[in-house]
Amino acid sequence: MKKHALTFYRTEYSLLKTELETPSYFRRKLIRNYIYKGPVLEWYTRIKMSLESNYELINSLVPRNADITDIGCGYGYLSYILSFVSPERKILGIDYDTDKIDLSKNCISKSENVNFVAADAIEYPFEKSDIFILSDVLHYLPDDKQELLLEKCMNLLNHGGKIIIRDADRDQVKRHRSTRYTEFFSTRSGFNKAANNRLYFFPGSRIQQISSRNGFKAEIANEAKLTSNMLFVLEK
User: Fold this and answer.
1) What's 162's domain CATH number?
2) Alpha carbon distance 26, 80 (integer Å)
């Protein structure tokens, strides 16, 4: 009888945790990792999390026990949020900005299931993953390298996995002006680094073409109301 009761309470507790412990629930925990790293970074973290709706949508697309490669992880916001929601996830964050990686490695919430490496994602020999995330990273690469990185992820994607791309769609002409301004501000202010101070925004139709050519199906999971940002999900 006691064993059945214990099993019941454990099951109910697990269900309650899944329901309540969402990315928004962990927002304050994430921000606490950055409050002693300068007032500007703290401000940027709060704004970024609000703009991204605490990464609720991306989290909903990622299985709770997935192996995840977060390409262009920056300060590690998304990587940490995904790990908070489910400790069963194993996450590798990659970014070529050494300063950001050094900072993300030294957060108070760093755990064994989250690792960060400073590297060029095109050159770095990362392993197969269930989920590849490319959030606001492709437009920092020239067209040929965008395609090279996407095909690398496709070749290393585990069966049944997903490639999640969040980036601006140049085809959304009116809304794209706002996105260009935002990215211009982030690079000029030093939060993001662009090679040769250039950005390479691409049309969303190009994602569809590359996907189709490699046997993948690309769907739009969401689009922003005020900017040209789109969320593409690629599956085999």
Assistant:
1) 3.40.50.150
2) 9
Structural Rg of the chain based on CA atoms: 18
- pTM attached to this predicted model: 0.87
| Burial of residue 126, with CB atoms counted within 10 A of its CB: 0-12 exposed, 13-18 middle, 19 or more buried | middle
Helix (H) or strand (E) holding 174: helix 173-188
Answer for the pair 140, 184: CB distance below 8 angstroms, yes or no: no
pLDDT > 90? residue 201: no
What whole-number distance in Å separates Cα of residue 189 and Cα of residue 192?
8
- 186 contacts 192 by C-beta, under 8 angstroms: yes
- Identity of the amino acid at 7: T
**Count of structural domains within the chain:** 1
Q: What are phi and psi of 227, to 5 degrees?
A: -125, 180
Q: Which domain holds residue 159?
A: 2-235
What is the average pLDDT value for the chain, to the nearest integer?
A: 86
212, with CB counted inside 10 A (0-12, 13-18, 19+), is exposed
The token pair at 174 is 């009116």
Q: Contact at 8 Å (CB) between 184 and 197?
A: no
**Residue 102 and residue 74 in contact, taking contact as beta carbons nearer than 8 Å:** no
CA distance 84 to 97: 24
